[in-house]
Amino acid sequence: MVQNNIFHDMLRAIAEVYETESDQQGPHTAKTLLATPSPVAFDPVLPCLFDAGIRAVLADSTHPTARSVLTAQNFLPWGSNPVEGNTEESIAAMISVLTLMGPDGPIPAPDVRLGLVYMRPESYYPLHIHDADETYAIIAGQALWTAGDDTRMRRAGDMIHHPSLMPHAFRTGSEGFLAIWRWSGDINTHSYAFIEDQETELLA
Q: What confidence score (pLDDT) does residue 38 get?
């Protein structure tokens, strides 16, 4: 079926990104993604709240994975942050998350989580931590990214690794960003927590 081919092409493009990661969990995640069939059919869905922004930032990107995600956009059930219960309403409203793989699916995997995240323009997601080891791969847009003591602009093609419990935060400009993310190690969601953040205090 056409939609299955489109969706598979997107998964293949995502896997190719993590196949190149130096951390061994990247290639492991890629292999798991391609080897595990989804028991869920990805049929066309209604546009999500951020559909226009997602399409715009993907259309402006030359990253090959961005093109495959844009092609599959009609079939992607974007939703809220999986850890939304740990976030303030204003924070939860600035991003949309699509979980592709994990213990609770839709592609089942007991030891990794993987998905896409979009963050709208002119937003700040404060410093936070979690037990999981995490790697983001930006495929569209850009953000001023803090990972531990390192703060710099990250753009499409950049890969950012957050070891377990490393504080990280992001600020978008006029275009927002869209990235792939993966979790490995202890992938529980209850450890997700915001920490003291001077920038948030200045904005209050």
A: 79
